[in-house]
Amino acid sequence: MSQRLGKDIEWLIVGLKQFLNRRRRELITTSSVMVLVLFIRSVGLLQSLELETLDQFFNLRPYESPDERITIVAIDEESLRQAYPIPDGIIAKLLQKLQANQPRAIGLDVYRNLPTGIGYQSLVNAYKSMPNLVGVELLVPNNQNASVPPPPKLNPQQVGFSNLLYDPDGTVRRSLLYLHIDDQLHESFALKLALLYLKSEGIRPQQAASNPEYLQLGKAVFPRFQGNDGAYVQADAKGYQILSNFPKPGCHDASKNNCGYRLVSMMDVLNDRVQSHWIQNRIVLIGSTASSLQENVFTPYSSRVMTAAKPVAGIVLQAYFVDQLISAALDGRPLLKVWSDFGECLWIFVWSYIGCAATWYIRKPILSLLTVLFCCLLLIISTYLAFLFGWWIPLIPALLTFGGSVIWITYQLAYMQEKLKRSKEFLQQVIDTIADPVFVKNEQLHWIVLNEAYCQFIGYPNTLLIDKSDVDFFPQHEAEVFRQQDELVFLTQRPQENEEEFTDAYGKTHLIATKRSLYKDAAGNYFLVGVIRDITQRKLMEEELKRIAADLFRSNKELKLKEDRLRYLAYHDALTGLPNRKFFAEQLQESINWAHNHNLLLGLLFIDLDGFKQVNDTLGHEIGDRLLVIIGQRLNNCLRTSDTVARLGGDEFTVILNQIPNTQVAAKVAEKILASITEPIILDGYTTRVSASIGISIYPLNSQDADTLLKQADAAMYRAKHLGKNCYELA
How many Å apart are CA 414 and CA 452, to the nearest integer? Predict the structure, then answer.
């Protein structure tokens, strides 16, 4: 029995070898194309295309039944016109009216870390009386200044973070469930709400049996996102992330505002115009849908092929997250999963091989074209159907490998046909018509045919060269190169082109480009045909051009560096590095033009330091200069990247606030600047304190002219000084 098993294995090995030999061309092409595409994918060049394809799959998927478990209370433009920021008393009244309708959970997606307006105590009382309320915070590890804390009186168990994960194109395709910061485990806002809802269904979070690192909720196991899942390349995988399989709920009435969820206005709730069953036993999400607050985000549904991208409100995105978690846990809605790396490579290899085989074995052009189109359609449909069942299978790499294999095999077939067509009288035509030196060698690498141009080029007569080899006439190192190139052509049976050195009979060395190819006669004998071109002069010219280009490049680079340096000095203050008066004037005019074209407000702050002269007189000008540098840095830290701070001279600074919604924003920035400037400054052991007087003018409320705005801000600054300094005044 063992002998029979051995023979079976032997026959299997022989059969496998025969198969590989017969499929050698297809397998080599398949592997080469696949490796190239995988390399391109591994460096991230295909990521944007794959993500865009995923977005289009989201847009093509059929609509789902509307989720009646979620209601959104929208803080819309009408609500903002009543009061902004919305006072604590109104928020408290809104929460009380909602709670009266007995929702399962209320999510307040509004940052409320400081008292706002009147009614703060009412809001605190509402917090304490509503255990089903969840608030938000923004977590920024290692940067507490950028974090937004939760409402101070809200129980920490009722707070979830609202951090979003943005892909390089600014689109949100992933959801963050947990974060570990300072050994503390934080849950997301959406997860908190989903768990509150699922708690009444008897569902609690637990470790998945298949993998303890995965989260299980009811019927769903949430696989943890890894940095190279799907199309991602070395993405940030910190925290517990999942690929978001965004729901696509259809809209059946106008109140859902094209988002698929019940959407009511905050004013309607406050005025008792909302039906109780829209709230009862549901998750109620409170957040902004007003476009003026610029809190919109892009999702896969924002992607459009022929139209502009359409973002959704942040509160709608949170509804998507909550909907996905609850639907997966209760209804078994598919999650978005990916194959293993091996599975994806095998998938890509299979389609590369299909492209090779379909092109190689179907030689009729029309039939071959139809087969290729059918395969492409089959690939797209199969990946789309897999997506509907929750699997993200690579489409773009598979298409590229399929198309690359088709193109490469088509090229090989065309080359073979063309070679066969010209082979009958190839040798004679080459010898008779080509003016370049031409030689023909047999398999022993001996010359058998030479044209007159070759004999003149080498400097020896034809009768002396025939049946001889390179080693008989050329230096050893040159003859060795010729031999290696000739053998390579016989081994690979493919044309080769190579640049070489060639020494003629007179001892003159030429630089030549030799193209070698094989010719097979009717008897099956192979001959090597070589065509030579003297490129000595061209190479010398190329070297000269390279030298000239290098000199020009070096000169241009030095000139550009000087120009950049001069421009920097012309537009920046030499001491602080801030923009100077000239830069400020040009930037102010540009900002005014922008604000005018986009119907926006612009704030101008004129800042003059209080007590700076005393520092100069007592501690010296060097300390004063260092103080100005620190003040400039503090001003920069108080502003957005879109704002501009400049030093006009002495201890005078200006700030341009772009795209502000109202005057109060400029006032808040002024307060922030005053608080920052008055912080103690330690220089050479001396603790120094200075303050500032700030004047504020607003375009176009105060003026539409840049000079007038500056004068009005200057005048307001002087009023601030007369009123006691360390304050700000509006023009």
Answer: 32
Kindly tell me the sign of the dihedral angle through the C-alpha atoms of 485, 490, 491, 497: positive
The answer for residues whose C-beta is within 8 angstroms of residue 676's C-beta and 6 or more apart is: 634, 635, 637, 638
Give the integer Cα–Cα distance in Å for 283 and 103. Answer: 6
Side-chain-facing half-sphere of 693: CA atoms under 13 Å: 17
Interhelix angle 396-422/47-60, nearest 10 degrees: 120
277-316: b (≥16 Cβ within 10 Å) or e: ebbeebbbbbbbbbeebebbbbbbbbbeeeeeeebbbbbb
- Low-confidence stretches of the chain (pLDDT < 50) are 14-16, 18-21, 252-257, 420, 424
How far, in Å, are 284, 642, 654 from residue 709 at the CA level? 46, 19, 12
Measure the CA–CA gap between 523 and 486, rounded to whole angstroms.
21
**Distance (Å) of CA 560 to CA 552, 555, 565, 578, 579:** 12, 9, 8, 22, 21
Which residue is listed with tokens 């190819």? 517
Residues forming a β-bridge with 528? 441, 518
3 state SS for 349-391? HHHHHHHHHHHHHCCCHHHHHHHHHHHHHHHHHHHHHHHHCCE
* Cα–Cα distance measured from residue 76 to residue 676, given in angstroms and rounded to the nearest whole number: 34
Coil vs helix vs strand at 504: coil
Q: State the pLDDT at residue 358.
A: 86
Q: What per-residue confidence (pLDDT) applies to 132? A: 93
pTM over 0.70? The answer is: no
User: Under the phi-then-psi rule, with left for phi > 0, alpha for psi from -120 to 50, and beta for the rest, what region is 202?
Assistant: left
CA atoms of 119 and 123, how far apart (whole Å) = 6
Summarised one tens digit per residue, pLDDT across range 299-353 is 998 877 666 678 888 899 999 999 999 999 999 999 999 999 999 999 999 999 9
DSSP-assigned beta bridge partners for residue 257: none
Gap between the terminal Cα atoms of the chain: 103
- Taking the C-alpha atoms of residue 547 and residue 428, their distance in angstroms, rounded to an integer, is 43
Copy the structure tokens of residue 578: 């801030």
Strands 691-699 and 681-683: unpaired
CA 229 to chain centre: 15
